[in-house]
Each structure stands twice: as C-alpha cells, then as structure tokens.
Specification:
Shape of chain B: globular
Largest sheet of chain B: 3 strands, antiparallel
Oligomer: heterodimer
Amino acid sequence: MPFNIGIASLVHGLHTADTNTYCQNDTAASDYGKCYNTTGKAVFVQTDTTTWPIDPTTGDSFPCAKDGTCTRYTTTTYQRTLATIFSYTGKQAIVQYIYTKSHSVLGIAGRITYLQGHPIPSHTYEGAYSFLFPVQVYEQTTYPIYDPVANWKAYLNPYTISIGRVFYLRWQGTLFTPILYLIAYENNYNNIWYASFVKVVYAYESSPLAVIPLDYDRDYVQYQELRSAFGFSINGVDQPGWNADDIVRVLKELFPDRAWAVFDDRQYVLYLYNLTPDYIPDWLIEKLSPTAMKVLKAPADATVAKAWLDLLNERNAQIPPQAELP
Amino acid sequence: MSGKGTGKPDASGKQPPGKKKVRIRKGGRWVEVDVDGEVRKGRFKYVKFVDDDGLDTYWISPE
C-alpha cells in the first residue's frame, strides 16, 4: 500500500474520558501542589525548592510529584517541548488531524504543536495566554469557535472542573513536515499546572519499519546509525526506514539485549528479535498484516520481550482505561 | 540426526511422522511445508515451520 497511517496519542495527566482533572495551585490552600483524577502525569511548574526540595536520594518532595500524579519542573520556560511526536530525517509525513483536550489554569500561553517552527494552527499571534489555545482573541470571544481559514474548531469549558479551564481544539488539513513536536507555552510563569490529551494522525510513505519504542533524547537522537537507518515516532511503530536489512543490522549492533521487530514492507515479513509471535499484539498484526513472521532470535529472557510489549501497548493506547468503558 | 523437529525430511528422504502438511503461497508459488504448529493472531492464522533460511517462521495460513 502506498501510504501508512501513523497515530500518536499523548497523555500528560489527562485522557479523553477524564472530566475533573485538576491540580491545586493556590499557595494558601492546604493541599497546594496536589493533583487529582489524573491519567498519567500532569505538568506542574513549581520553582521553589526550599519548601519542596528535590532530594536525589528520595525523589521529589512536591506533593503531586511524590504521589506520581505530576511531573514537577523547578524551572519555568517560555515554551516547553513535551515530546517529539515524530522525526523523519529525509522523509516527510503528512499531518492530517490534531485533536487536543486540555485542563489548565490561566496564565499559560499558547499553542500546542510546532512543525519546523510553524505552529498548528498556523496563526502567528504571540499574545495568547491559555494552554493549547492558538490565539488570545479567541479566548475572549464566544464559544464554540470555528476558524474557516485555518479550519480549526475550538470549545471552551464544555464542562467545568474544580480548578482551571477546559479547552478543546480540533484541526484537520494537510501539512507536510519531517518533524513534529508537542510544545506547551508556559510564558515563564510559576505555580502553574496543565494536563492534556493530544491525538495526532498523519500519513507517510510505505516503508520498512523499525518497531521498537525508543526514548527520543536518550536512545535515538545521538545515534547517527539509527537516524541513518530509520525515523523516530513516539508510538514506536511508525518508524520508516529505507532498507529492512539496514534496520536489522543497526538494531542488532545497538540493541543486542533488547526486543525489537522489523517489518519488511516489500516481502510483508515481520522479523522478530528477542520476541516470538506470543508477544506480538493483535493490533500490530491488524495494522501491518504481515504474510510471515520470522524469529531472528528467540527471547532468552521473557522479561525482555514483555518489556517491549508493555511499552508498545502503552505508546499505542487507543482505547480508554477499562473503568471508563460503558 | 533425523528430520524430527526441523520439518525437513531425514536422510532416508521420508517425512517425519505426525507432521501436518500445508500448502502456502510463497514467492509467487504454492509450496508444501510440514508445520510444527499454528498460532492465531487477531483475524489471522499462521502456521509454524522452519524455513529454508533456518529461521522459525510463521506463515499466514491459506485456510
């Protein structure tokens, strides 16, 4: 098939089904620094390390960081890159759809995504002060909003949360880019929190794929060999390369003790390393429809294969948590 | 060593006993293989055998 579809779901404290995720940022409140009803970790910017120090031996003492409901930053930024959604050196993807839902307090500027320095939606107004929202003037206008030029729709406070505001934004269109980031504008504010759920759908040319969830900063970007062999995707699957043999060779060299798979899109063969078909999720089979699976190396240790499967499922969570299903 | 477990004929040219034979479409041709097992993944069923390259292989079943 000429194109593959890539889907990235990014959870930062919020899932699409969550309705009352919030954090306490009133410094006078007894529960200051606590986050409630999160899925994953919200972001809390709290720079005062005298009250809640970061102790390298015990971890962060900030309440929500301590109980695992937030990622606490002790420095604020103008804009923070939360994730690299994909990075396809020498290839392009076609971004087709972006859906964002966010809960946040006022005082956070901005837009959510950048591609090569151009924001989506492609407004240039810099004065916005609400997280995941493109233009300040729209925040002060009647909702819901439809911008026929940029073709995006926005909705403010379709429901209320205990603290903060709710934003929805949906954009649909066609944009070509080799790289896409998830960025939050903090506008150098302190004592702010935000939680978001973002879904991005894009297409890319059919290619051999490296199926291995990687950390962009730690595992991928500094390795020229990887970047020469295949692109990065946050979902760990839509990582197109040029040649399946090259991908196998590089992965064998760099990750001999991890589990990974390589999909040859010409032969429709899925090569498994430190894996057997038992560990291949059905959704991956549905997506790739391989004619054959070949075991390059059976897992000597099942935990290696299980770690690959767990991380792959986590990065590709397309369904809400069981508790939220009807 | 006999062909038991490899899916291939032993020195006498006989197929190992108890192996199910399945015809698969491979390289544009129908090929008969001795299968070691079956795996169902989603809507698809794969048959297991040792391919010519010596790798454990799971091929989509035509059935």
